[in-house]
Amino acid sequence: MTTRRHLFRRLFSLSGLAFTLTLGAGVAADAEAQAVSNNKVARDLRQVATAPADAVTVPWAKSLGGQRHVKVLINAQSTDASLRALRADILKRGGSVYYNYVSVRALSAMVPVNALGPLAARTDVLSISPNRPVERHASLLQHVTGAGTLLPLALGGSNTSALGLTGAGVGIAVLDSGIDWRHQSTWDTNGRTRVRSAVDIVGISVDSGTKDWIKKSDASDKLKGKLDASAWLLSGLMLPPTSVYPDPYGHGTHVATVAAGAGSYQSPESGGVAPGAGLFDVRVLDENGVGDMADVLAGIDWVVQRSKAANIRVMNLSLGATSVDSYMVDPLARAARSATATGIVVVTSAGNFGKDAAGSKVYGAVSSPGHEPSVITVGASNMKDTVLRGDDTVTTFSSRGPTRGSFVLPSGKRWVDNLIKPDLVAPGNKVVAALGADFTGTAAGWNLLARSHPVLTQVPGATQARTRTLMQLSGTSVAAPVVAGAAALLLQANPGLTPPLVKAILQYTAQPLETASVVEQGTGMLNLEGAVRLAQALRTDLGPALAAGRLTAGQSILAPGRVLPTPSSVYGGRAVPWSRMIFVGGTHLAGGDALFTQWQPVYDPALTWARQTVLRSTVTYAPQSILRPANTVVLSVVENTAPMQPLLTAGVRLYDSLGLNLRAGSSMLLTPVTTLAEQVARGAGLTLRLGFTGGAGSVTAEGTLLSQGFILSEGFILSEGFILSEGFLLSEGFILSEGFILSEGFILSEGFILSEGFILSEGFILSETLRDRTPLGD
Q: Is the pTM higher than 0.85?
């Protein structure tokens, strides 16, 4: 016990995220391996740095002048936002600096492999990861989700009130392959596009030289100037570009119109969830649907800096990269966490790796940044082409949790995050939305996806007229924008909601699907009707009150004269019970009326609690000027361990022990959510009497016995309850019973050749072998 307590003290130091990561077994003998043996260097980066030249095929490594160089993302911890000393050191060692990010204290750079060790040894360097590739995760929808009852008649809904919810006034940023702003699905009722602004991060990166392999160059100031929000504010909202092909690949247009498409102008009805929301096109994937982490991070920067001025409240990331690293050091996870801290609801797809080639279920294959605890990670459900929800299931391809990002502890033992994901599921099978095309509107000018897979364009009833073309896609990348649109409706209904509160409402009101467990469906399928009713029962000033320091733990958050709504909804004349559960701390299920009658500190977007860690982000804004209001443009987001503070209040119920079975390999993780929800409805669980408190890298219960699996010692939780239950998820690579395979989060094999499946419909995968890039989704 003493050893583990000392271990966690070292891991979660009070000075911030001062992690000490080690390689574990073995130290390479040759000089090059010694140079990169520092424990802060990611595993796949170490593999490439020491592999024979003929075995290296990844796009982020190249030999220059007989010396291997790698493109990396360097996570930093420094009080100097410019990271001047680190940038100078990179140049001195023969490397180049591409970009210094705002949303996360990190640099994009190119360095020779012999510089990795010295750079990792610096005290201001937290970790070094390769600039991994990312790709896309590739109406009936309105009725199934409940949006149809909220939308006005003019947009295909059934709400006869002129105040029907459409997402109007709320901005959704879509980081993808672009948005065809000429398509009628993006127009408002006056025929003007709702794509408020567009930026081509891929093009800007190419123009700024970040795709080059030039030594001793620092392009960070040049690139930052092109993405600077101050100039954008001076010129007002930029109009969409007039390019011939705003979305040559086609994925981004489909994703954007699933979230906010207005499709009531034709049959079949192809409307998205929030057809009145504004769209912001942030192109981070190229014409083949491929990108890299550096561009995605730059895209997140662009959104974060403009979110206040343009009211961008939602960010959709239907893309991802390998989730090898722990969420605490993974660059995409950190940037997404920073975006959440600034008040943006970040929605991401879980991934499409739910089964292997033999059809066996795979666990632990959630992509990055879906393994980040603060984001809303969405899995895919199958609507079965019916309005009724009773026959809906989780698709077989949808990635399952728990998350498997990891790092190595000082003792040499490997730490695995093991957080419960996804958070919920939404329709993601054969969803119809817009097909992006060029000016001609002919089939020859359709996007690459449509031209390459004509079956996707075979939408029953579609005339495929110019600016009205349709296609259907399947995957969690389609399910994520369903939830992004739902978030926009909630924020229109109640602008005061914080991102964690939006997530909690969506989880609490979700409908559990039969047979699927929490690591398959989260708390259930999206239920917008219930979510809006719950959101409207809460105060509309919560966000401003939090910012002004007027909210305290346990304070009432109910709107004046309101009570909590009945925890069930009606679809097709049939009652649908809510899950009445949310995830807290990454591994806990919680419920009880106190969640929505009292302010819970975990609803603060600047706070992230996951297992033993409690982190707090501090957002710094540019000073007020004549042309720029105060607290408008984000200058930096800095993260440190949080001071001791309440996390949950008295009255919240914890359900850690529900469904726990003592048989080896069986736990709450595999118990159907419907079973858990039935026990919750009967009042099961432990009610906190003294609240739940944590901080400074630790979590304690103030003397309250939380559940049988917790061992408390000097403020640290040393045993995690149901996650490590009698052999379940104890080590990587174990093949469990019933054909379940525990995936290690896409650890690359030698040669770095992986297979990527484009999912046409559930159960049918058209395989396409991709070399030199890691699969992201459908």
A: no
